[in-house]
Amino acid sequence: MDLFDDLERAAGIQALAPGAALLRGFARDAAPLLLAAIDDIAAVAPFRHLTTPGGHTMSVATTSCGALGWHSDAEGYRYTARDPDSHRAWPAMPACFLQIAQQAATCAGFPGYAPDACLINRYAPGARLTLHQDRNERRVDAPIVSVSLGIPAVFLFGGLRRNDPTQKLRLVHGDVLVWGGPSRLRFHGVQPLTHAEHPQTGACRINLTFRTAG
Ligand code: MD3
Ligand code: FE
Fold first, then answer.
1. Which spans in the chain are helix H?
2. Is the pLDDT of residue 40 over 80?
3. 26 pLDDT exceeds 70?
């Protein structure tokens, strides 16, 4: 086999596509700290089920931290500086969040990563995210870093067109994905979660998604 393949395997880094990397277990050691920080954030900015511009209530519950947070309602999808529910600024991004995101981005070949938004998605069994693109960020040249915590999920990633074929990827507690370069605008989604329990989260999956939004 190729030396590069051997090195990737030894480091736990798997190239999925140009600009896209899977870092298996990269956040496993940091997970308890990340989960404690999520509790603190949710105490100030509680998880909520957003409404899509089309009037659907999302099955995934969401909150945010950082200078900008994610919101959707009848008026559209957008980043806001304040939580529209409380009118307060979003909670600051914890140091442990920024550290894991920057370390993962660097390992995947994107040094100097400076995310200003972290979307926190919470999935109960049955919750899903239909195929979509993330293109509301001002900087689509900066990568997106995603951290999976809790029970497993089947992640779908497609191509640059909605009807391109999709690949399935099972993500478990501690896995980190980095999507940059030509993969940044790929369509992606999450299949409905099947019931499971994780010692650190109970019957749920939490995903952190870091972006450079503003
Ligand atoms: C691939 N979240 O919040 S993260 C989202 O697991 C979102 O909660 C999913 O998609 C979740 O928008 C997936 C992985 C991810 C995030 C952004 C991407 C994959 C991506 C952008 C481009 C390509
Ligand atoms: Fe997305």
1. 3-11, 31-44, 95-107
2. yes
3. yes
Q: By the 8 A CB rule, do 193 and 151 touch?
A: yes
* Residue 171 Cβ < 6 Å to ligand 1: no
Model pLDDT for residues 42-64, shown as the tens digit of each residue:
999 999 999 999 999 999 999 99
Main-chain dihedrals φ then ψ at residue 78, nearest 5 degrees: -165, 165
User: What beta strand segments (E) does the chain contain?
Assistant: 13-17, 20-23, 61-66, 69-73, 76-80, 117-123, 129-132, 144-150, 153-157, 167-171, 176-179, 188-190, 205-211
Please check whether residue 131 is in contact with residue 166, taking contact to mean a CB–CB distance below 8 angstroms: yes
Provide the whole-model pTM.
0.95
Ligand 2 centroid–CA 30 distance in Å is 23
Could you tell me which CATH class the domain 6-211 is placed in? mainly beta
CB 184 near ligand 1, within 6 Å? yes
Over residues 61-82, mean pLDDT: 97
